[in-house]
Amino acid sequence: MFDKRKSGVLNHPTSFPGRYGMGDLGAGAYQFINFLHEAKQTLWQVLPLGPTGYGDSPYQSFSSFAGNHYLISFDLLKAQGFLTDADLATTPAFNLRLIDFGSVIIYKMEMLRKAYESYKLKATAAQKKKVQQFATANKDWLEDYALFTALKDHYGGKEWFKWDKKLVKREPAAIKAAKETHKDAIDFCKFLQYEFFRQWGELKTYANSKDIQIIGDIPIFVAHDSADVWAHTELYQLDADGLPTGVAGVPPDYFSETGQLWGNPLYAWEMHKKTDYAWWCKRVSAVLNMVDIVRIDHFRGFETYWSIPYGEETAVNGKWVKGPGKALFVALKKQLGSLPIIAEDLGEITEKVDKLRLGQNLPGMRVLHFAFDGIGESNYLPHNYESNLTVVYTGTHDNNTTMGWYSEATEVEKDYLRRYMNVSGEDVAWDLIRLAISSSAVFSVVPIQDIMSLPAKDRMNTPGEAQDCWGFRYTAGMLTPAQAERLKYLTGLFGRLAE
Fold first, then answer.
1. How many structural domains compose the chain?
2. Are strands 364-367 and 246-250 parallel, antiparallel or unpaired?
């Protein structure tokens, strides 16, 4: 899996061009894959693909197994016969460069509901059979998730631990009654999940036919307000009322002086161990059914994780607690075989974290934005890489764009960068793209913003900021044949072309 040099692009589907307020799995997605193919790129990296909740972060999902129904293409629903030209003619004039999640989600849900009502009236027996077969095949997670979404809507969006106590405790009689009462809402959810996975499956097949592998993403932690936690409270550190006793985050670091308070509940690792990590095996298997390779976010949390008392306002007053370590990966290998996993090992990394990663033969990540604040000794500099155990990025979704980073860098950093690469810095985004592709790292991945040389305002996320994140979009004309040709040239020059 990690024995051939490859290169690719980081681009989340929400960023694709299109007229429906945010990117989807329709024409914009296929156009991007065609761009990758023309540029001879063989990797496409995405962020987590689950349904997003408050804050719109793909790293805070309502389910670790479900797909994001907001990505369903209306044009592909029309091809199925569930939307019409008249339906799509009412589309508002959305911002083509920035997602206004509030208004877009309202519109999306209205249209998806319309498609579902049409499905109930017009679907053929064969179409309905496929939805039922999907629901049966995915019953293990879909039943809980569909009921979760129905109840969440019934309770006006309230978190599951604020519902009726009988439902919070998942008393069998209450669950049975809720399934009967909310049957239509449950069936609506199942229809949406079928359509997401149908569209995503066709898109992945198309990408693979172009010799492009997809790198997915698994957040190490799950959202407290999720079907995962509601359905399996015993697997998390919760009190009798369903509230966390401790929450996840990281201590003060490069991104934040007060650390990052994520707020996710922590795992009850002893319970996971008793089941031979069955839930984790199911989770990784489910994502690998959707993608070819998976990046696991915050890998260091498997060795030791930062535990913050519930109720703290920052991440400062936390402590390091021992994680599952090697045992989890032994279970994963036993269940799944070889692990096409990239370990996100950024931040405060200890020798024990490195030992865990290297012991599993997993490549780690190196970000070039972090390379130039010292002189020579940084392991983010290409001459210090571990070759086949390194995936290099100019920046990630959490970083500024390269243009934005360079404009805010110190004069010392700028000088070091220019001398290290023997460049003027006038074309710094492509300077770093060249450095990444030319490096010894087995994979190089570049954010779409850097290919377009975009400024700071086009960054995807700012860690620690709750507002104005995840909304980046581009228009079709911003991705050009000249960019594809430039990527193709560098990819060939430095031995990353597909055989």
1. 1
2. unpaired
